[in-house]
């Protein structure tokens, strides 16, 4: 599922900039929430997560302060969820990209 944001119900959690108003730990939790949301949407659409045969690649975009350079540690939250929920099927390659603005 493309373009997930850290929404729980109707609330977007942790709005801000990692390295300024959001800590690394909070940013990891946003990656976890976004990934769980994607998995929930897949399950809703397919009826089960067993339909997932592979997760070849993920891209994690992190709204970051100019001096924040550990976007990969934010992306660890998403990777950990995929492996925890899907096991070997959830192993993937990834890109973690710092951006100044997200929609």
From TrEMBL:
Q: Which InterPro entries match?
A: Endoribo_LPSP/chorism_mut-like (IPR013813), RutC-like_sf (IPR035959)
- Name of the protein in question: RidA family protein
The organism's place on the tree of life at top rank: Bacteria
The Endoribonuclease L-PSP/chorismate mutase-like domain sits at 4-95
- CDD domains membership: YjgF_YER057c_UK114_like_1 (cd02199)
Signal peptide as annotated in the record: none
Pfam families recorded: YjgF_endoribonc
Query: What is the source species?
Result: Cupriavidus campinensis
